Amino acid sequence: QKEVEQNSGPLSVPEGAIASLNCTYSDRGSQSFFWYRQYSGKSPELIMFIYSNGDKEDGRFTAQLNKASQYVSLLIRDSQPSDSATYLCAVNRAGGGADGLTFGKGTHLIIQP
Amino acid sequence: EAGVVQSPRYKIIEKKQPVAFWCNPISGHNTLYWYLQNLGQGPELLIRYENEEAVDDSQLPKDRFSAERLKGVDSTLKIQPAELGDSAVYLCASSFMFGETQYFGPGTRLLVL
Lengths: 113, 113
Hints:
The structure holds two protein chains of two kinds.
Chain A (H helix, E strand, L loop, with lengths): L3 E2 L5 E4 L4 E7 L6 E7 L6 E6 L3 E5 L2 E6 L4 E6 L8 E8 L9 E2 L3 E6 L1
Parallel strand pairs in A: 2-11
Antiparallel strand pairs in A: 1-3, 3-8, 4-5, 4-9, 6-7, 7-8, 9-10, 9-11
Chain B lengths: L4 E3 L2 E4 L5 E6 L6 E7 L6 E7 L2 E4 L8 E4 L6 E5 L8 E8 L7 E2 L3 E5 L1
Parallel strand pairs in B: 2-11
Antiparallel strand pairs in B: 1-3, 3-8, 4-5, 4-9, 5-6, 7-8, 9-10, 9-11
């Protein structure tokens, strides 16, 4: 049974600070890792994806992957109130596997003005 | 470029009634996914299509759920008969190929009374 674990929160962060979102996964065969943002009542939208160990930066967002520890994180710098949403971690066993994305339950992030 | 289109956006039905959801993926995307999302949970895969072939339907409750993608483009997900526990958001997603980034449609919110 593949599992993706996230702290459901809410995680409250002051505006302008760094928000750190964490995710662990159980399937060592996982190859690709995604962070989706979901506003209340809306569908998930892709923030970042990462395939290789290390850091990947895109604007205010940085994804970090450590396959040995089965851990992936998302850092949001200079947090804005518009970043308040639920952040979903998802993993994919690519390369011929029969599965789609396995999602965590999401972390509810609140940026306090 | 148009995104994933879903209809209807909202549906209210009485239990034991049939219901159908429609999805039009992003043009050129060969892989189509149907997910179910309950409140406070991440999306859960119901079925994945590669062109017109269902390659993973292990999580689809086949006694009441069915899906089709006849020409390898649009897809329909059907529930017959609907039960109270089927109330959820049904999300359609597509990707250029399996393992690539998935893009989600706006979802269909189903309420079974």
